[in-house]
Each structure stands twice: as structure tokens, then as C-alpha cells.
Amino acid sequence: LTPHAYLIMMGEQAEKMGWALSESLRDQLPGLRLLVHHGGGGFKRQFKQADKSAAQLALIIGEDEVSQKQVSIKFLRQDQPQLTVSLDAVSETIKNRVPLGRRDTR
What we know:
Layout: E1 5-9, H1 12-28, E2 34-36, H2 43-53, E3 57-61, H3 63-68, E4 70-75, E5 83-86, H4 90-97
């Protein structure tokens, strides 16, 4: 299955924030398919991997995002401007913009 989102992190503090965010998102959005980049590399390499994964969104955490407690969200398959949202708003932003394919419970 194709991931909904691909998490890109640059730097040690960004990785700490990113791993915590990934756990939180998986708890808050059980239908979310989130791929977390592992294996290092710069932003360019990570964006290539995000694109290759066919994810709809790239969640980006770098030094600026860490210092501001924010996450940048880049739409990889839609022509929409990149967003920067607070850490607390990431889950809601994803839920409002990506169909997560909830299961029918009838």
C-alpha cells in the first residue's frame, strides 16, 4: 500500500521530534500510513525518497521547525502551497486533507 505521508527529518533534534510525532500520529490517526525516512542523507535525497514512495504528503522537520515547534507539510501530488503548522495541528491538518480510508463498521 502507498503511504499517505513521508516523514523527512534533518538533524538530531529533528529526529527526536520526528519519532515522537510519528508515534503520536499513529495513535491519533489509526488509518494513517506513515513512512519515516531512515538512512540519513540531506533534504534532497530524502525528498527523492518521499517522491519515490508515492506518498501524498511530506512532513518536514528541520532546525527551523524544531526551534518553532512546527512541521512543514509539502503536498507531493497536488498543486498546493506548502504549509507550516504547529506540532499540535499536524494530526488535524492531515485528517482534513488526506482521505485515510476508514473501515466500514456496519
